[in-house]
Each structure stands twice: as structure tokens, then as C-alpha cells.
Amino acid sequence: MSVRQLTAVEREIRDALPLGRTVDLSGRLDQTVRAEVLRDLLLGAADVGAGRAGRSDRRGRDGRHGDPDRGSPDPDNPDGGEEDDGDGGEEDDGDGDEDRGDRDGDGGNGDGGDVGGPGPATALRLTRAHITGTLDLTHAVLDFPVRLRGCVLDDRLLLYGARTRQLSFNGTRFRGLTLSTASVDGNLRLNRCESDGQIRLIGTRIHGALLLTGTRVRQRGVALDATRLHVENDIVAHHPAEVLQFPPDAASRPFHCDGEMRLNNAVVGGAVRLEGAHLHNRAGTALSAADLSVGTMLNCCDGFHAVGKVDIGYARVGSRVCLEGARLDATRARGAARTGDGDAGAPDCGEGFDDGDEDDGDEGGSDEDDGDEGGGRSRGVALDARHLTARELVLRPLITPGGTVDLRHAALGLLRDDPATWPDRLLLDGLRYDGLDAAGDDGPRWRWLRLDPGGYRPQVYGQLAATYRAQGRDADARTVLLAGHRHRRSSLGPAARVWSYLQDALVGYGYRPVRAAGWIALLVLTGGVVFSLRPPAPAEGVTPAQFHAGVYALDLLLPLIDFGQEKDFAARGWTIWFAYFLIAAGWTLATTVAAGVTRTLRGG
Q: For residue 177, what are the CA distances in angstroms to 158, 223, 297?
């Protein structure tokens, strides 16, 4: 390759690269760096003048000629002091650690000694540069840390299929990032970035954490596609109370995604932290995390705001899914995208921001639908948690969700919610849980079960009753089962509905046995008064015993018990019809009590 004429800034970068020194262009008149020069410096493939021989054994290698499986002899410190402790959940955003090597002077041991690969201190540390052209590092193998801090790129950043040590782009602005099917040995730092184009992390493996604090991504359709992403530690896109002031005007902003954030089939060894994140996709789905696997927590709480559907269906979460203090709004989904009515929250994707301009055709087609997969079906669904598996679900949003909440066939250890923010539509069929914790609710929640627009579902009533019984709340369990039968009544035919009303009125479907005793007492008292005023005549051919009006009424009422009064005396006149009424009432009571007892013995 021919020798290029380097600018003063590019020569400074060339000389600093093998020593790991920071090149800070803040305040300089010339901040321009050509992307092709930077690529050649990183790959070690260009004849860049003096010092080439001394760097030839430290250059990065193009993955098409190098060994992509080559590892580092020091996995505990892969970037020589630039890595944080790897705990994405309590991440240092890198602004302090990344400068540690710079304070050690001209390199030497400032980056942790010999880490193998290109050289003992090789690293790209570039601050406030304006990179022109397309920085294409497709399939590159970079055995040293790369840090672009507060830089501006005119085009997409291409790292498709790359094998890297640690990548840090804190505070950098670019027109999209392609890092699919890549491998990052340490953390991938994208804190406070501005991406006016899609970020693709499809099939990528990150051996540390993915850090997105304060970042904003703008792209119609799918803005951040991390399908099949594998992260060994955490995904951190939260809004911390205290962050370092770089850049000063972006320190306090939350992670913001204008378009769909997609984590389908991703595997996260630690937590997914989206506290305070803002996800806006009026074209349909705001967060798509179907089949997501999380080792610890999935936090969409503390100011989390989603405009569009949140889909965590079939996700597996090791401990807790938290939606406390969240805002879920799917009522406006698809309207703005279809009508093009000047949505203030829509991304400004001008010419040159096409998300299909890179050669990613082999990435499994995850972006074929451009975020509209199931768009018609997702309308009005604020939270899709079908078949979710978690030890705990905290469903206490800040306000009532704007759309349906779907919990069908989810398996939960503990469900925490708040009756004040129950949704208008709640799908519960097949939902299983071991315990309930409702804020400010000590009574049975039969009204909660009536929120399902699908009508009567016997399983949901049985599940709630079983949970109450396990907690020792037998009275509440009976109330729930009674409410279930009343709900079922609306689906019965006319005759069955009449019989249902009778069972409810007489014995509460067997769950109110005291009510039967009350009916018997009332009928016996009434019968005693009637037959005292109009005593029956002695039966023919029988020597009657002494007449007792109350016992006579009781003998008529109880079909299987004989007190002898009914045989000795016969009602006369209009009391004959009253006697028939008592006999019919007795059989009705007996039948409903038997049905209720049978139902109770069968568990409702």
C-alpha cells in the first residue's frame, strides 16, 4: 500500500498508539482524522512512514488473515488498567479509569504491563476527534483497547465480525454502529453516545458488560438490535442519581431509544438495568425481549417510560422483574407511524441514515420486519409477559398502564401489585404464582379477576383460591370461588342460570353453609305461625300424637328425617299449598347443599 501524507494530528495518533498515550484534540483548530488512516493505523496494514519497523510486531491484524481465536495471556486484566471491575451493575462509566494510563506518562507500565499481542502498552485513546469517512473495521482482530471519547464520526462505525479487547466510545456521536457477530473480551462502553442510526449487536458476545448510561439512539423501526446477544455481566442503561460530568450537558439524561429496543433470545449473565430509561416507538413495540434469559434482575422501574409495547414474553429471569414506578403506554402505538403526523418523539433520520446500508445479510433476518413484527396484534398491549418465568414480578407502575397487560401462562414465585394501578384489561388465564403482595389490599381480589376480557376462566379463580388457602385465608378463598361461580353464570343457558341463582341465594354455591341454616329457621318459623293459626286435621285411621306446629313444619321441610307429625296430621284448605311449598323448599335446600358440599370436597 502506498505511503499516505499524514496530517499533524494523524502523525500524533500514529506515534501515541504503540505507547497507549491519549491524544486529546479538545480546543484545537484541527480535529479532523481520516477514517481510512485510523483504520490502517489500527490494523497495521499501511506504510505510515517513520517508526514503521518498530511497530511492525505490534500491529493489529485483519481477521481475514489473522487468528480470530487467539486469546490474551492475562484474562483478568485484558486492557491493562482500562477495565473496571467488570461489575456492570455498579459500573464506573470509564471516565476515570480510562485516563489512568494517561497519567503514567509515556506508557511504560502504565497499562498494566505485558498483556500479549501487539505490545506492552498499545492502545488507541483518542478524545474530541472529528473522524471523516467510514471507519470500517469489519472482521478486524484488535488485541488492544480502543477508546474514542467525545468524538464525532460522519458515518457508521463498522465492526462486523470483529474480535476486540475492550471498546469504549463514551460521549461519541456516530450515524449507527454495526458490531454484529463480534466478540469483545472486556466491557463495551457506549455511555452518553448519540447514534443517529441503528446500533446492531446481533449475535455478539461480550465477556464483560454492555454500558449504555445516558445514550440516545434514533432510528425508525428497530433502533437497537441485540438479538442473540450474549453478555456475561450486566446490560446497564439506567439513569443513576450521580454520574460524572462528561459531557456536562448530558450527565443527567436517561438512556433514550427512539425506535424499538430488541433483546430477543439474548442471554445476560447478570442484570438488565433500565431504570429511568425512555423507550419510544409509536410504530409498535418499544422493548422486545422475547425469550430473553437474565441471570438476576430485569429492572424496568424508577421512571422507566415506554411508549409502545413492552414484550418480555417467554423470558426467564433468575430473580426479579421490576416495573415499580414505570409508565407503560401503548394507546398511541402505530398511529403516528402510519399517518406521519409530525410526531415530536419520532427520530430525525435524514438522508444517509438507512439502516440497510451495510452487508449484514447473514444476521438471521432479525430486522426484516423493521420493528413492525406483529404490529397489528400488538396494538393496545402495554405489557406482554406471557409465559414469563421469574421468582418475583413487581407490577406497580406509576399510573394505570395505557393498554392491556398480558400475564397468561406466566410462572411467578411472588406477584406484587397495587389495586390503584390495575389495568383496564388484564389477561390472566394460566397464570401461576405462589404468593401475592398487594399494596393496601387485605381483602380478596375477585375484582382483579374480572378484568380479563375473555370472560370466565376457572383456572384463575382456582389459582387465587389455592394461594389464599396456602396463606391460611380460607374465608377469602371461599369468597373467590363464590365470585367465580357468579362470573360463570353469565355464560349459562336460561334454565341453568335459574338453577345457578337458586344455588347462590340458598347456600352460596355451598361456600355459605350458614345461609342454609338461616333459610331453614325462617321457613320453620313461618310454618309454625301458619299452622298455629290453621292447624291441620288428624289423619284418618290414625291416633295422632300431640300436635306441634313448628315440628310439623320442620317435618315437611326435611325430606330425609321423619318426626311423625307429617303422618299424623294432614293440612287442609289453603295450607295444603303452603305444605307443598315447604316440601319443595326442603328438597331444593337439600339438593343445593349436597351440590355445594360435593363442590367443596372436590376443591371448588
A: 6, 10, 27
